[in-house]
Amino acid sequence: MILRKGSCTIPLTINGETREVMARPGDSLLDVLRRQLGLTGAKAGCENGDCGACTVVMDGWPVKSCLVLAVEAEGHELLTVEGLKDTPLQQAFLDHHAFQCGFCTSGFLMASHALITRHPNADEYQMEHWLESNLCRCTSYAEIREALESLLPKAGAAETV
Fold it and tell me: How far, rounded to the nearest angstrom, does the alpha carbon of residue 101 sit from its chain's CA centroid?
């Protein structure tokens, strides 16, 4: 970390690539991802951790990037929805029409990716628990659940995400 007049340069490992960003102590990870790195998949919804539209994966766990300071992400592995390009999970969301307006989709994709990675044989309770941290105002919940279920029962699903 290099300090410069209230800001610091920090390295962030995002989608397998280390990138340097300038951040003030109070800058959220969401702001740095969107404004400095052009990774706009994480959406600024409520900006207080309620909606899940800003969800990214940090060290294999879903986190709300509006609640994480950019400086706290240094030294951690970050995955954004841009890092899920052309994956079976994205295809499952398409196949099951698991989106309407699309605003919440990236957050649901990231929560689903973390669930499949951590619990490839997740049951109904685990699935409900992991998805309840994200909100969809257009009510695509049934389709999101169907997309996720289409990947979970398969052996080795964690490898295909």
Answer: 18
pTM of the model: 0.89
Query: Using CA atoms, how far apart are residues 133 and 114, in angstroms rounded to an integer?
Result: 13
The mean per-residue pLDDT over the stretch 7-15 comes to 95
Query: Model confidence over 59-111: pLDDT tens digits?
Result: 999 999 999 999 999 999 999 999 999 999 999 999 999 988 889 999 999 99
Q: How many Cα atoms sit within 13 Å of 67 on the Cβ side? A: 14
- How many residues does the structure list for the chain? 161
The position carrying tokens 């659940």 is 145
Label the pairing between strands 55-58 and 77-79: antiparallel
Rounded CA-CA distance 98/13 in Å is: 29
Question: CB–CB of 117/109 below 8 Å?
Answer: no
Terminal CA-to-CA distance of the chain, rounded, Å? 33
Burial class (CB in 10 A: 0-12, 13-18, 19+), 141: middle
Measured between alpha carbons, how far is 76 from 65 in angstroms, rounded to an integer?
Answer: 13
- How many helices (H) and strands (E) are present in the chain, helices listed first? 6, 6
